[in-house]
Design brief:
The complex is a heterodimer of chains A (286) and B (257). Chain A is globular, with a radius of gyration of 19 Å. Chain A is mainly alpha-helical. In chain A, the strands form two sheets. Chain A has a two-stranded antiparallel sheet with strand order 1-4. Chain A has a two-stranded antiparallel sheet with strand order 2-3. Helices cover 76% and strands 4% of the residues of chain A. Chain A has a single domain, classed as Orthogonal Bundle (ABC transporter involved in vitamin B12 uptake, BtuC), CATH 1.10.3470. Chain B is an alpha/beta fold. Chain B has a domain of 178 residues: Rossmann fold. Helix content of chain B is 40%, strand content 24%. In chain B, the strands form two sheets. A six-stranded mixed beta sheet of chain B has the order 6-7-8-3-9-10, with helices on both faces. In chain B, strands 2-1-4-5 form a four-stranded antiparallel beta sheet, covered by helices on one side. In chain B, β1 and β2 form a beta hairpin. The longest helix of chain B has 17 residues. The chains are: A mainly alpha (286), B alpha/beta (257). The interface between A and B is medium-sized, with 23 and 28 residues. Chain A: It comes from Peribacillus asahii. Chain A: One of its GO terms (molecular function) is transmembrane transporter activity. Chain A: One of its GO terms (biological process) is amino acid transport. Chain A: This is Branched-chain amino acid ABC transporter permease.
Chain lengths: 286, 257
């Protein structure tokens, strides 16, 4: 029982981190059908920049703010100069964003060196609570709370703000949104920057959780995020958080019982979903 | 009277086919003008030229005296041209109210403001409800658009079009694909818009009784050319128009040109 709960909490925490990464990705694809392979690079940059600031100032909050700031900045640059020239062309998008991803990863090594950097949570998030026989690690609980809060925030923005309505309508039919006189490219830039900020936040949060950060972490987690986007349905935030939780929990149990298969199982779920429901489990588009 | 819309020798050629040739006309402010003509006469093509979906190969278009021949669809929407399509265009997975609210907030030019002030948001909803009322869609606001009947979808489309508050409405067969029971309702909506008296309307229709009833003036398009223009009475009595609809004119008219 204790093991079961621990594995579940662990899986939930991982799921939330993947969700933060996938949330931007799914809206970016849903809105402008842009395939962004550089998303993992933004995630890794958020991680490195945030950790650097955290270790420098000894303030975890400063690290989080720094990560979000660098995410927004890199998001702006990526959208303006990398994505915009290749709107509507998937092959070019794959090539240029994959290339940019490599550039981002290598630049990390140039600036912060090729070695792994060890990170520990701040004192107030270290340790655990003991409820009966069950140990709940504080930092994991913290990640779950942040993930749920972010989901609540995105959900509220989509449902109850003007830009949210435009985004939801754009996911359904962007040509028609334009015919109403709305400049959807401008909206897309904002969505991209918000997505990049969430990816960077995820990167920062994952650092003390994993204990170390390294230059290739972007690719590793971006794959999981892509799986989540496919399972959850393009452009669907609720689908993304459910799929991310599923992938996180399955990954956590598999890593304990059959560690060799933990990534393969996620791939397998994606393959099955693609076979029987190619639009994703919770798709909005038919 | 001021012409709100004017075309000069407007024409478009696809390959060797002249879909619209030398069409010059003007529409006065608050006028209700209909365009009739047999299938393939170039009515929808003419609309595409006016709304900016197509660029003319010849001639000019003026809106309120300003040349708009090269302007994009978005620019023309902002200048006050609103257009409905033969095919229904709504967002299926948004509610009826959200569909209209999107148009309302676009019109309000508050497009890029992420965090809304509570009261302005409420004002948008009120406005959206007003347009739903005009389009006879009361009590449907929380239905998903996908669950509306076809006739209701066309009404919703009309509400969205009205929400953009265009000065010039281009209506392309608003009753197309509608069941007979639904036609009177959409007719009522159009009449209501006309009675408010602050819109200029260009209408393409095949239902002659509807056209005779609504129009101030009628233009007849035939083979891409403007065949006749006049009041409903004049058009009814026009022999050229009669033969265009009854046949026989085709050879004569084309051999002339």
């Amino acid at each position: 029982m204790e093991l079961f709960i621990n594995l579940t909490i662990n899986g939930l925490a991982t799921g939330m981190l993947i969700f933060l990464l996938a949330a931007g990705l799914t809206l970016i694809f849903g809105l402008m059908s842009v395939l962004n392979f550089a998303h993992g690079g933004l995630f890794a940059w958020g991680s490195y920049a945030g950790v650097w600031l955290y270790l420098l100032t000894n303030s975890f909050i400063a690290g989080i703010i720094g990560a979000i700031f660098i995410g927004i900045l890199l998001g702006f640059i990526t959208e303006k100069w990398i994505i915009q020239p290749v709107y509507g062309n998937h092959v070019q998008q794959i090539l240029i964003t994959l290339g940019f991803m490599i550039v981002l990863s290598e630049l990390l090594k140039v600036i912060w060196g090729p070695n792994q950097i060890a990170v520990t949570p701040p004192a107030y998030l270290t340790g655990s609570w003991e409820i009966g026989n069950i140990l709940i690690i504080k930092y994991r609980a913290f990640i779950i709370v942040v993930g749920l809060l972010m989901y609540g925030l995105i959900y509220y923005m989509l449902k109850h703000t003007k830009i949210g309505l435009i985004v939801r309508a754009g996911v359904i039919n962007k040509e028609m949104v334009q015919s109403l006189g709305i400049n959807i490219k401008r909206i897309f830039l904002y969505v991209f920057m918000a997505g990049a900020a969430m990816a960077a936040l995820s990167g920062m949060l994952i650092a003390p959780y994993a204990g170390v950060i390294h230059g290739n972490m972007g690719m590793e987690y971006a794959i999981l995020a892509f799986i989540v986007v496919v399972i959850g349905g393009m452009g669907n935030i609720t689908g993304s958080i459910l799929a991310a939780t599923l992938v996180g929990i399955i990954g956590s149990f598999m890593a304990y019982y059959v560690p060799e298969l933990s990534l393969a199982v996620n791939m397998l779920i994606m393959a099955v979903v693609l076979l029987f429901r190619p639009q994703g489990l919770f798709a909005l588009k038919g | 009277m001021v012409a709100i819309l004017e075309t000069k020798n407007l024409g478009i050629t696809f390959g060797t086919h002249q879909a619209v040739q030398d069409v010059s006309f003007s529409v006065e402010k608050n006028e209700f003008k209909s365009i009739i003509g047999p299938n393939g006469a170039g009515k929808t093509t003419l609309f595409n030229l006016l709304s900016g979906q197509l660029k003319p190969t010849k001639g000019e278009i003026y809106l309120k005296g300003q040349q708009i021949t090269g302007s994009s669809v978005v620019e023309r929407t902002r200048l006050g041209i609103g257009r409905s399509f033969q095919i229904t265009n709504v967002f299926p997975n948004l509610t009826v109210l959200e569909n209209v609210r999107l148009a309302v907030q676009s019109q309000a030019k508050l497009r890029y403001q992420a965090f809304t002030h509570y009261r302005s948001y409420q004002k948008f909803e009120e406005k959206a409800l007003h347009w739903l009322h005009v389009a006879l869609l009361d009590h449907k606001e929380n239905t998903l658009a996908i669950n509306l009947a076809h006739g209701e979808k066309r009404k919703l489309e009309m509400a969205m079009l009205l929400a953009l508050e265009p000065e010039l409405l281009l209506l392309d067969e608003p009753t197309a694909g509608m069941s007979l029971e639904d036609v009177p309702a959409i007719l009522q909506v159009i009449k209501k818009i006309k009675e408010e008296g602050d819109k200029t309307i260009l209408l393409i229709e095949h239902k002659m009784d509807m056209i005779m009833d609504l129009s101030d003036r009628i233009m007849v398009l035939f083979n891409g050319k403007l065949l006749a223009e006049g009041t409903p009475r004049e058009i009814m009595d026009n022999e050229l128009v009669q033969s265009a609809y009854l046949g026989g004119l085709y050879d004569e008219f084309t051999s002339q040109s």
